[in-house]
Amino acid sequence: MYASEKSDEKALRDARFPRRLDPSPCIDMASTDDTGSLKICNLAYAYPGGKEILSDFSLDLPPGSRCLLSGANGAGKTTLLQILAGKTMVSEDAVRIIGKPPFHDINMTCTGELGYLGSQWRRNIGSAGSVALAGDFSAGKMIFGVENVDAERRARLIELLDIDVDWSMMTVSDGQRRRVQICMGLLKPFKVLLCDEITVDLDILGRLDLLQFLREECETRGATVVYATHIFDGMERWMTHIAFASNGELKYGGAKDSIEGLKGVRHLLSTIDRWLRVDRDERRAREAKEALEPKKDAGLASKFQNRHMAYYR
């Protein structure tokens, strides 16, 4: 095999199976007494042919945490949540959810211990772009079709989210469809829940009731929630931890009382606004510098997707 063919073969292999960009020494693979809910250690991630999306990202959340994940558009929040949900592959030593690597241990997702609520109820259809999933069946058929669910918990969620089980999933609004999605994602008690902009379609009552439910889950069962949003009303009292991403790195992270900019703050929006403006100025400076540098050829790997069947679980 010629050297160029070997290079192309390696590029194809790396495109299909992305790797962490550096080893992570701070998660003990042999440890059996890990009591944390979520651990990220020096995580670095890049799509094939592209620059790093996440770089040296570390976070440790204990059970019962309610973590607000914030940052500008393109900061890496959705990529991070997909990695944590086991939908995108990284090495086993990079991320642990309740002591297990989420991509390699799919049982957490199957049992409901690890939950993910995001944009998976949409799909791209040709020139129509992103289209909401729909079908000629009722909301009740979907909700009651989930097996091994506590009837009392199901009834509470239906009432909490103000769902009419006779709704046709063909004609519901975006907000109603989102309510059904959230209900189904919460039917089984979770240990870690990852939420990616799930309240964007909800009215204020639906959002506040859902946040109260998640708070109770954390306080009574020791569950952990990572909640990505750009809506900060009421989040000061709700969150226990924060993770603010900037240029793929964790710029501010940990218990909210330990973050200097959050001590005594009554309105979170003012602090996040200040952080975002600094982040924007830094991004513009980077882009101006990069525009003056010659672009490198991304190579063969950039022509291939790196997602695999686990992404669609």
Tell me about this structure.
The protein has 313 residues and is α/β, with parallel strands linked by helices. The protein has one domain: Rossmann fold. The chain is built from nine helices and eleven strands. It has helices at 3-16, 77-84, 107-111, 139-143, 151-160, 174-186, 204-221, 235-238, 268-291, and strands at 38-46, 52-61, 66-71, 95-97, 114-117, 122-125, 129-132, 192-196, 224-228, 241-246, 249-255. The longest helix is centred in the C-terminal third of the chain and has 24 residues, at 268-291.
Short overview:
With 313 residues, the chain is an alpha/beta fold.
How is the biggest beta sheet arranged?
6 strands, mixed
The proportion of strand residues reads 15-25%
Superfamily at the CATH H level? P-loop containing nucleotide triphosphate hydrolases
What is the helix tally? Answer: 9
Key features of this structure:
single chain; 313 residues; alpha/beta; Rossmann fold; 6-stranded mixed beta sheet; 3-stranded antiparallel beta sheet
